[in-house]
Amino acid sequence: MQRRPNVLLIHCHDLGRHLSCYGAKTVNSPRLDRLSALGVTAERMFASAPQCSPSRASLFTGRWPHSNGVMGLTHADFAWDLHEGERHLATRLRDVGYRTELIGVHHESRVKEDHLIAEDLGFDSVRTGGAAPEVAERTNAALDRLADSEGPFYLQVGFHEPHRIPGRQDPPGIQGFIGDHMDPDDSLGVDVPPYLRPDASAREEIAELQGAIRYMDAGVGQILDRLDALDLTDDTLTIFTTDHGLALPRAKCSLYDPGLEVAFIAHWPGGGWTGGRRLTDLLGNVDVVPTLLEALGIEVDGAPQSHIQGRSFLGLLDGEAGAGGRTEIFGEMTYHDYYDPRRCVRTDRYKLIANFSSAPGFMDPSQSWQHRCTAVDEGIGHEDYHPAVELYDLHADPVELDNLADRPELAAVRAQLLARLTAWMQEGGDPLLHGAVAGPLHHRTLDALRAAHAVAGA
């Protein structure tokens, strides 16, 4: 049997599609731009959720957050985790003979010590943490070791940048993007995304974001250079992606497109994923696992608790005539910093969002007391709190500012999309259909109350 290709999956925090190869011309991202020019780029891939852990849980299991159990953050007292029996991509690949290693960011299951993460997810080795240069150095050391292994390897590499990071350069009350070890980058100018007010404070913050992206891009480049130097590129299926949109208002932690949009670049010369092709179909990051498994010739087991819900788009990557993507994509948020349950369905033209709480119109992802970027609709004509339903015509209103949910002429569209969203929630066993969802901290506090009550009553 012919040896299966290696898999190198590189991901980062909070990037969205903010790269030059996706049209952000003031961003310095030469190495990822080159990877895009060599490989295949998905122009319209969306995350399953606009926050770190739920989206990553889908990326690495091929299952929706409300099905795999990660409906909120996995660290500290947030404490969400994959359901027992969920199968991570690393487990599936190790079962067929892959060497498996994780370096850098892990945020798709309960955060624990590295050796416990390895046991839970199916990795031979896990080493978390580190800024981009350190992650790149560790990855290159791993590549040096794995290059001589008899079987193929799966190397999962996570960059923290461009996540916000505190540092002495930050003004009081602000958590920026550059910490103490990066610099802003306005060498190509600064373009403020259209959903934000283009004022001086926004340009200052976006320059920091651009500096963090440039820093991460250089780390990716070091890894790709080592892959070339070891003559592994042709036989390695290389993917670069991210978890969700930028950590800016109306992006991360929202179900508007800027919160769900993700970069996805694939390069595999041995499999024909080359030539700078661009895919324009709707795709979801929940589709990545089934696509990889099909590309590698790995059959999916039928265990109900690990049933893959994504759909392979291998035909698109292979350039097959007639291959297509999705007619609709879905997204969800349940918990992030606080409980804000929302679900959405998006077609080529319309986005419908169903809101289940009276939370503010969009969650603040800045991790700051003071804000430099503000949304274009903040305080000017947009609901301060969620309406029950939002409906946007993405062709006429790509920034999603004009809620058409109550327009009589769109009643049929609204009803159809609500029905499709309901069917999707039912198919995945979404607990939100049965009432409010309690998080891990809720259950832990209840246990403390019950234990205290039992002692008092003894």
UniProtKB/TrEMBL annotation:
Any Pfam family: Sulfatase
| InterPro entries linked | Alkaline_phosphatase_core_sf, Sulfatase, Sulfatase_N
Entries under CDD domains matching the protein: SGSH
Every copy of the Sulfatase N-terminal domain together lies at 5-298
Q: Gene3D superfamilies attached here?
A: Alkaline Phosphatase, subunit A
Keyword entries, A-Z: Hydrolase
Which family, according to UniProt?
Belongs to the sulfatase family.
| Record protein name field | Sulfatase
What species was this sequence derived from? Streptomyces endophyticus
Source lineage:
Bacteria, Bacillati, Actinomycetota, Actinomycetes, Kitasatosporales
